[in-house]
Amino acid sequence: MKLQQLRYLIAVADNHLSLTKAAQKIHTSQPGLSKQLRLLEDELQTKLFQRSGKQLVGLTTIGAEVLARARNILQEIANIKELAGDERDEVEGSFSLATTLTQAKYVLPKVFKSFHEKFPKLRIDIQQGSTDQILDLLKKQEVDFAVASGFDNLGPDVIKIPCYQWERVILFPHDHPLGDLKNISLKDIAEYPIVTYNIPNSVNSSLHQAFKLEGLEPNIVFTARDSDIIKTYVKNGFGIGIIANIAFNPSEDRDLIGFNAQDILPTSLTWIACNKNLFIKKYMQEFVKLFAPHISEADLKIYLHPETISEFDLLNDNHMESLAALPMHN
Asked: Do the domains at 3-83 and 168-266 have one common CATH topology?
């Protein structure tokens, strides 16, 4: 078995099982790639791919397991290479992060300003997308960190560091009927068209769950990933908006009223995530400290290396209490 064959396997999986695209991505020929995958299957004496004629249509059960282990192997090889450089405090290269548009625009600029001042030779690469897209990039090991919200369970191969809570804001023009109410309820909101964030899986949405608990169905007529786009469409009469409180500035959004929904909608959680087999460099730890300075080194150690902390230590050092007391984004 060759490392090159494992790289080819990953390339095919990450390019939607297209041999042509995978070959282009890793700068090799399609026949050569196909041959190496066949040799790998022959050596393992099992099929890694489901085929329809010459076309790959899926991974077999064992193929999916081999793929996951191949990712871990190549990540560990990269970790070994990075280990010496981190020990010598060589901070060059790039730091990649996937996040939502809201985080990229309203939260991360100040963090990355301080981060860049500390590590001026480090190139920062940010990719934006939905939470589903962000997790896909993370699990494919195409980014170092992910910063997003939602999703209680990110899977066994992902480390999740809870950082902040945030509240939602209901937006509507000054002449909207909701402005005449002293208190706004979910029933009041359900009577109007809603413009909010794109939620691919509403089952995981705390917003949908809040309405469901009241026996209501939100009338969502328009979705977007960008808070500014949502505000624009609210201004143009599409409906009322529901966005993160960090994306609403009363002085800048003067033509909209923002009603804090803390009493009628649940708070959401912003987290940082990384693959559990990623070698966490010193500058990555520094990023976490800048993003969430309230997280102590002891708490960070628990998140990054939970296997090193005993249950006795957790209970007697009051770590669980400190981890639960997350501040609000303002």
From this structure: no
- Distance (Å) of CA 71 to CA 132, 157, 211: 19, 11, 40
d(C-alpha 259, C-alpha 266), whole Å? 14
pLDDT mean across residues, the chain:
86
Q: How far apart are CA 100 and CA 72, in angstroms?
A: 26
315 class by beta-carbon count within 10 Å (0-12 exposed, 13-18 middle, 19+ buried): exposed
Structure tokens at 37: 């995958």
Alpha-carbon span 158 to 139, nearest angstrom: 8
Instruction: Give the whole-angstrom CA distance, residue 2 versus residue 52.
Output: 26
**Per-residue pLDDT band at 320 (split at 50, 70, 90):** very low
**pLDDT of 96 over the 90 cut:** yes
What is d(CA 143, CA 241) in angstroms, rounded to the nearest whole number?
A: 31
Instruction: Enumerate the domain spans of the chain.
Output: 3-83, 91-165+269-324, 168-266
pLDDT of 86 higher than 60:
no
- pLDDT at res. 312: 46
Q: Tell me how far apart the alpha carbons of residues 149 and 246 are, in angstroms, rounded to a whole number.
A: 13
Q: Looking at residue 120, what is its pLDDT?
A: 92
Q: What is the pTM of this model?
A: 0.70
* Domain 3-83 bears CATH identifier 3.30.10.20: no
Predicted local distance difference test score (pLDDT) of residue 314: 46
Tokens representing 223 are 């979705």
Q: What is the C-alpha separation between 71 and 13, in angstroms, rounded?
A: 11
Q: Between residues 35 and 312, which one has the greater pLDDT?
A: 35
CA angle (102 as vertex; 96, 105 as ends), nearest 5: 70
Domain 91-165+269-324 has CATH 3.40.190.10: yes
Long-range residue pairs from 103-106, CB within 8 A, at least 24 positions apart, any chain: 103/147, 103/148, 103/270, 104/128, 105/227, 105/228, 105/247, 106/227, 106/244, 106/246, 106/247
164: which 2 tokens?
């902040």
Class of domain 168-266 (CATH, top level): alpha beta
